[in-house]
Design goal:
Radius of gyration: 17 Å
Structural class: alpha+beta
CATH superfamily: Quinolinate phosphoribosyl transferase, N-terminal domain
Strand order of the largest sheet: 1-5-3
CATH architecture: Alpha-Beta Complex
Largest sheet: 3 strands, antiparallel
Length: 115
């Protein structure tokens, strides 16, 4: 067995890394949010480029969101590999605060209009 094959076998798969990161980051929840935000109050998250960049990683965003709540669909506003300027919205997703930890299974994500 080559060194590369041994390294690949010892490294967690990307989806396992997502699960481990979420378990560490979310833990038992966010007590401040639970106390201050009405659980029925909808919100939204917007991913915005903070500098000129080449868009990448939205597939990972979709996997992370699906692991947290399979009912939430990421609306992409930019394509992978697209050059975008600072301030451009890359993706939008609705947020329901208390339901965020209830659906562990992935779901396909929708494609939205271009910016």
């Amino acid at each position: 067995m080559s060194a590369q094959e041994m390294n690949e076998q010892s490294q967690p798969a990307p989806l396992d890394l997502i699960a481990m990161a979420l378990a560490e980051d979310i833990g038992s929840g966010d007590k401040t949010t639970e106390l201050l935000i009405d659980p029925q109050q909808p919100g939204r998250a917007v991913i915005i480029a903070r500098q000129d960049l080449v868009c990448c990683g939205l597939d990972v965003v979709e996997h992370v969101v699906a692991r947290i709540n399979a009912e939430v669909l990421v609306r992409r506003l930019a394509d992978e590999g697209e050059n975008v300027l600072s301030g451009v919205k890359l993706a939008v997703l609705p947020v329901l605060h208390r339901r965020a930890h209830s659906h562990p299974h992935p779901r396909a994500c929708a494609r939205g209009p271009q910016h």
